[in-house]
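User: Can you model how (2R)-2,3-dihydroxypropanoic acid sits in this protein?
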Amino acid sequence: MASSRLPKVFAVKAIPPAGLARLRQHCQVTVNEKKGWPTREDLLQGVRGMDALFVFPFVKIDREVLDVAGPQLKIVATHSVGLEHIDLELCKERGIKVSYTPDVLTTATAELAVSLVLATARRLDECFCAVKEGVWGTCWENSLWLLGKQISGSVVGIVGLGRIGLAIAKRLAAFEVSKIVYTGRTPRPESAAAVGAEFVSFDELCKQSDFVVASCSVNESNKNLFNREAFKKMKPTSIFVNVARGVIVDQEALYEALASGEIGAAGLDVTNPEPLPPSDPLLTLPNCLIVPHIGSLTDTTRKIMCDLVVDNILAGVEGRPIISPAF
Ligand code: NDP
Ligand code: DGY
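Assistant: Here's the modeled complex, given as structure tokens:
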């Protein structure tokens, strides 16, 4: 096929070379190679006249973007399971397909959530700093120095027992926890039965849990769900882990809860905004461990995710059914 007739794809930021090479066998691909997130201007310029968009979370695909892209746009393919950055209703209305990457990143994200539970429970960040800073010898005589929390025997609360929440619950169950509770908009009896989890209200989950793990999708029901009242309900020893999205947390309230000892510690893979500015007060707290949104960032998972996005785009532009439709 002559190159002028190849479907046009715009990638809003750099994509792995293998995925790009596969796409280029069938499509004319433009990549926004600029470092960091694309500016709105670059995004609007890039999408014009495209048949497919290869997108990532935090890059808003809204009415203006779809209007500028034009009526030939066939598919918006996101390299994520989160869909909150895309106007799904409008895409549906206009017959634009939307694909995402469910399931393939569940294991990697669950493993990261468990890592955050373990790292915060045993204060690994503080431990590593103590060794590096040479205070090990001077504090070791105190037998309670860097005292951690045990996972066995604890109550684990999962906020959002979906694919990732269930995978986290299964892994934490292996640590011989005493109980798993979960919450959501609706009970999920089948998933709950797989891990013996009990459905409770959000308030009850906050009260009962030693570890509160957020793994929900984002929607209007849970923006700032973790606010002052929520942290007040938790135990002073509770550990809060978030692998969902930063917008479900009132970060000022989290800072106050951690600084005042209202809760014990936090482990965050996601923040608001991302990246979190180095001047953010949360970064001054020894009991707050923050990693840069690495949930799905393993070699195997990222390869599969990219392959899936490419397969969806190729199906979308060729008029075949897409593999993982968002609706
Ligand atoms: P699922 O759709 O399988 O699960 C989402 C869960 O969230 C459902 O159980 C849903 O239950 C629940 N939920 C929605 N609203 C609420 C609420 N208000 N309170 C409690 N639970 C709620 O999605 P996945 O498990 O595959 O992914 C979940 C999210 O994890 C993604 O949307 C994404 O934001 C995030 N994620 C983060 C990653 C990272 O790198 N840190 C990697 C991958 C995903 P119900 O509908 O019954 O309320
Ligand atoms: C997702 O898939 O939603 C993650 O946040 C990015 O991997």
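A couple of observations from the model: The chain has two domains: 3-103+299-317, 106-290. The pocket of NDP (ligand 1) is lined by residues 81-82, 102, 105, 109, 159-165, 183-186, 215-219, 221-222, 243-245, 269-270, 293, 295-296 (CB under 6 Å).
User: Helpful, thanks.
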